[in-house]
Amino acid sequence: TVASPAAGLFYKVEFDCAKAKNNGFLGIESLLFTYEDGQAPSVVTPEISCADNMITITCATEGADIYYTTDGTTTPTAEATKYNAPFGITEDTTVKAVAIKDGEASYVNTFVAKYVPIFNSYAEMVAAGVNTIGRVNGPITAIYYNNKNLYTKDSQGNYMDIYGNLPSGLTIENGTTFSYVEGKYIVYEVSGLPELTDYTLGEVSDGTAVEPEVKSVAAGITAADASAYVKYSNVEVTDINGKEFTIKDGDDTIEGYDTFSYSGLAAKTNVDITGFVVMRDKTPRIAPILIEATTETGIAGIEAEDGEAVY
To answer: Which residues of 156-187 are buried (b: 16+ CB within 10 A; e: fewer)?
Structure first.
């Protein structure tokens, strides 16, 4: 609905359509345009907006009262609910509003407000189920970005891969922080990796870099560890076969996969491996972003006074 039509203007019509499954083809079969002639009212049509699931209605005509409905069908009049302050919604809501001054009414404006569930952690969003669309409150800290995969950690210590191109001009470093992340929670069918897609990032700021969690090979990894930022110390890289390899510590092993095409992947002993838990064919693997020689620490030697025993 064009709230305040005016001569000599062009209007853009946008369509919010579900993704098509027939090779991506999507068409609009027909458009119906309706209009009415007449003298525009002197009372300006109210403007309706929604932010953080709160509806705000304003009118540029000083002294005008605003009335609204939320059932999606009833046209508001002076008998409808009078607007006094922003109000919240708990589901997608069609808001209709009219402004009235000295008995004269404006055009009616219709606004479809999209409800966005708000979560305090990735874990809450995951619990809501696959295909949930919502916002996770921050701070959300970025750790690493590679080939459309943005690995992040929320304020409660949960990890999540955010998939898609970064906003233009945004540079990611370990510690880059967002006030929130909004998107759709899915589990990628091929790999089994949980991730957020079709995302929007909140306000960007500089934060504290995330340190990897020190893990033992003996403890193993599970799908619940997906996207975790981890480090294995003083281990061996062996059995390299293309992108697949094994991380070994004594008799204990876990499988790795070179998701990020790490240039330093080679059979080595006594190394520290830092990387992320990724999913490969629905099986968790370690994808390295850094492999470096172990820094040895300990007692280099021991001496005793003449005649004293060495323990």
So the answer is: eebbbbbbeeeeeeeebebebbbebbbbebbb
